[in-house]
Write a structure and sequence with these properties.
- Helices cover 25% and strands 23% of the residues.
- It is of the alpha/beta class.
- It folds into two domains: 45 residues, no CATH class; 289 residues, Aldolase class I (TIM Barrel, Alpha-Beta Barrel), CATH 3.20.20.70.
- The strands form five sheets. It has a nine-stranded mixed β-sheet. The protein has a three-stranded antiparallel β-sheet with strand order 1-6-5, with no helix packed on it.
- A hairpin with a 5-residue loop joins strand 2 and strand 3.
- The longest helix is centred in the last third of the chain and has 15 residues.
- The radius of gyration is 20 Å and the shape is globular.
- The two termini are 20 Å apart.
Length: 363
């Protein structure tokens, strides 16, 4: 049954508790915002309404678009297929380098221009030929209830769900959320507590716990992205420690994407990431055993393509978001040596390419 869109007064949530002083504490994410009546949390879309935490953005989106799945980025999940993408507003981190700040840092609910019920989103994705729906642009952690309702509607129609997230969430809501996800790209922003504390207003350990949970306690396909910011998280020592941790705690098959920073939001004084830094990170990761390491936000086919770890053949060639080569058989194995490529594949590659198609669900 379709869940009705609630008015601006809010949609009831479960992850909160009343404190002795009368405030209500949100227990969705490790910020644990403690709110008086009428106050909103840092995310701005969850607030204390009549003594309980309500989601104020349920059913309201900052826009809908069909993207290539590679843009999420996911390189080992239904390659070449279109993904129906949407987000809301707000965020539960405070990253000074945010590159979607006009959405994630919005304090204007009018930024949420489109309205759509979960069933309408699932039906639109199916009608438009999308194999999956992505909860993206801002973090689905903060629109937890809406994302789950959409994912349930999608699963009923055979549409898969993709979370693009920073992974900053508490254990109980995390386990509920990932029961309904099929793939996730988690933004591992750095590998130091200093970075998370000073530039994101969060903590590293909670993200590491989410990564281990997804990898070892769910069937969700996992990929990781790290935006490399000059002088902040791109030292060889930190990259070595990070990729050793990924190999040792998550496994060598988990793909990792190193992407280029451009000056934005509150870090306009930093330079763009040199391509050489991305390639250095890739070399370090591969030296530590990671099999699938990619660069992003730059044009480099060789470092954006997928190779067989056994024989070295290029399995999936990528030119930006367009697939240029496909050397997998129907079972997702190398057509040269037969080694299986880790990931989720459905026979032949999709042919969506690099297109970006805005969608309106207004009736």
């Amino acid at each position: 049954m379709d869940t009705p869109i609630e008015p601006v007064s809010g949609f009831p949530t479960r992850y909160w508790q009343t404190l002795a002083d009368g405030r209500v504490e949100c227990t969705l994410c490790p910020r644990f915002c403690k709110l008086h009546e009428g106050q909103r949390g840092l995310c701005f879309v969850r607030g204390n309404v009549a003594g309980q935490i309500m989601l104020l953005s349920y059913g309201r989106s900052s826009g809908f678009c069909i993207d290539p799945i590679e843009k999420k980025p996911l390189n080992h999940f239904l390659p070449g297929t279109p993904v129906f993408s949407f987000g809301t507003a707000g965020c539960n981190l405070a990253c000074k380098f945010c590159q979607n700040w006009d959405i994630s840092k919005s304090r204007e609910m009018d930024a949420l221009m489109d309205q759509a019920s979960p069933a309408l989103i699932a039906q639109a994705a199916a009608r438009l030929g999308c194999r999956s729906v992505a909860y993206t642009y801002n973090d689905p952690v903060i629109f937890h209830e809406y994302a789950i309702d959409v994912a349930q509607a999608c699963r009923a129609l055979g549409i898969r769900s993709v979370a693009v997230t920073a992974g900053y969430v508490c254990p109980d809501p995390r386990s509920e959320f990932y029961r309904w996800m099929d793939a996730a790209n988690v933004d591992l922003k750095a590998f130091s507590e200093r970075f998370y504390h000073s530039l994101c207003g969060g903590h590293l350990q909670a993200v590491l716990e989410t990564l281990e949970y997804i990898r070892h306690e769910t069937p969700v396909w996992l990929e990781i992205t790290t935006l490399l910011i000059p002088g902040e998280n791109d030292s060889p020592a930190e990259l070595d420690a990070m990729t050793r941790w990924v190999a040792g705690h998550l496994g060598v098959e988990v793909p990792i994407h190193f992407t280029a920073f451009h000056p934005d939001w509150k870090m306009r004084d930093k330079p763009n990431t040199p391509p050489e830094t991305l390639l250095l990170a890739r070399r370090i990761a591969r030296a530590n055993g990671l099999r699938h390491v990619y660069v992003g936000n730059v044009h480099d086919k060789a470092a954006s393509s997928t190779y067989c770890h056994q024989c070295g053949q290029m399995l999936i060639g990528r030119d930006w978001y367009t697939l240029s080569d496909w050397n997998l058989n129907e079972s997702g194995c190398c057509n040269h040596c037969g080694t299986r490529l880790a990931g989720v594949f459905e026979g032949r590659a999709g042919d969506w390419g690099a297109k970006r198609q805005p969608v309106s669900l207004k009736r």
